[in-house]
Amino acid sequence: MCGIVGIIGKENATDILVQGLEKLEYRGYDSAGIFVTGKNKEDHLVKSLGRIADLQSKISSEVQGTVGIGHTRWATHGKPSERNAHPHTSSNQQFILVHNGVIENFEEIKQEFLQNKQLEGETDTEIVVHLIECFAEAGMATKEAFKKALTVIKGSYAFALIDKNDPDTIYVAKNKSPLLIGLGDTFNVICSDAMAMLAETNHFVEIADGEMVIVKADKIEIEDEKGNLVYRESYEAQLDLSDIEKGTYPYYMLKEIDDQPTVMRRIIQEYTNTVGDAVIDDKIIGKITGSDRIYVVACGTSYNAGWVGKAILEKMTKIPVEVHLSSEFGYNMPLLSEKPFFIFLSQSGETADSRQVLVQTNELGLPSLTLTNVAGSTLSREADYTLLLHAGPEIAVASTKAYTAQIAVLAVLAKAVGDKKGNQSSLEFDIAHELSVIAAVMETIIDEKMVISQLVEDYLSTTRNAFYIGRGVDYYVSMEASLKLKEISYIQAEGFAAGELKHGTIALIEDGTPVFGIITDQKTAAHTRGNLKEVESRGAHNFVIALASLAKETDQLIIPDVHPLLTPLVSIIPTQLIAYFATLQRGYDVDKPRNLAKSVTVE
Ligand code: M6R
Which Gene3D superfamilies match (predicted)? Predict the structure, then answer.
């Protein structure tokens, strides 16, 4: 979703902003813009619809300065257009603002304060820059006008504001949307994601909700809501520029699929000891062991991982687990058990839908754990505990390695809790060994890339729709496999419980409809095969992905056996490659699918 960058105190502000915006491209956006000033007091505002490359083509050599802000916009209020792209300016052009988030009371603000202002576009951000101007016109200094505006605004925001009359300062504030200050020796930067500014610094300072920051080239001043100065230590980002480069890969998604065996080995290193036992903070284990029900709350791929996690957690811990969509849970909270424990799954740790649930569970004083890939992310900071996924930065919008990392970390957690409770199913489970087998099997499947590419051509080259079917964990994998296929190849795909098809959905099967059957569970294999026969009789073009011990010679893809609880970690791999090749063959951008954002920071 929207991204923010800013720089103060460097000669080549324009290049730094553009490079920063390029690093934020993966988050998803439809337009972009920069404002640069400082040098010779000349101001430059450049905006463009489309990609950063389009913006770049509009930036002439005169666009130079020592201070600037930049933005990638993912449209919420007002369609994608140059007019609606940020930065936005006030009527007298004095104030320039970029914003991530959603201003909920923008209509009210318009009515109450901006009756006589001429607005250019339809965005909620434009309201804010005019509101600041309004307070400045009433005699307030810029800082006061900005702070006053913050008291009027309701909603989520990360703001960066420049006053052209004082280009030695960037004013920054945040509430619910991510924003960081990066520290340099003679300069400072701002960014909604550390990746954007890694080329400049790897020392960052977090900003808390409600704080306002004055950013100058040689210092930063953080003020809390009451105006008190706050001192906060910086931290060193555990990221390397090479982590976020694609190297020789044509797309990040392919690199991230290939990364998965390494991620499994990293999880073994991080979360198991030399004798192979799970190593998780005792406080987390104590809280879960003392709970009577686990609630997993997540969105999209993380939600799908939650279902697989439920199967593993219940087997090992004997504690009932419910899995919920964040966007539903928050506003339709089910009746909770007496001693609930919440697990938030989020690759980015910034998903607004999940965060609104966490805010509520915190208000209720309920214990929570976030599993995330991003240290210091909002969900990580606001939950009681965090377990990192250690998957390395995931750049492609389509999540792959975060999904398998979530399942693997949940499996380690389940093992640690199960062992603590003395459960036999857990004590018998050698997690380090089983995950190392998984890593090796993942490699075997990934080596079959070209076979999968050919099969994709045979099955998906012309189809408009497709089905993934399975039972139990194979159904959960089907849900994720179909999400992957639809979000990047735009093939309408459904992940369905194999036995449920005949209760209605089988009506959609036509001559040639591709149906992918996933078979990794001995107790349901025969039934799923039966369901595949039913669709075949109605014209379906069946594609079977089966575990070796359950496979038939006619199956299209056969996967080596792994521990029965962990089969989703390997059965998902061919489906990720199927989505990748289907997209490639259709000529779409694999990493940046239409309408989607990597980090969904609005509800
Ligand atoms: O960062 P999160 O895991 O909280 O994100 C949740 C979803 O937005 C995300 O998984 C989305 O579904 C991906 N595009 C799936 O590939």
Answer: Glucose-6-phosphate isomerase like protein, domain 1, Glutamine Phosphoribosylpyrophosphate, subunit 1, domain 1
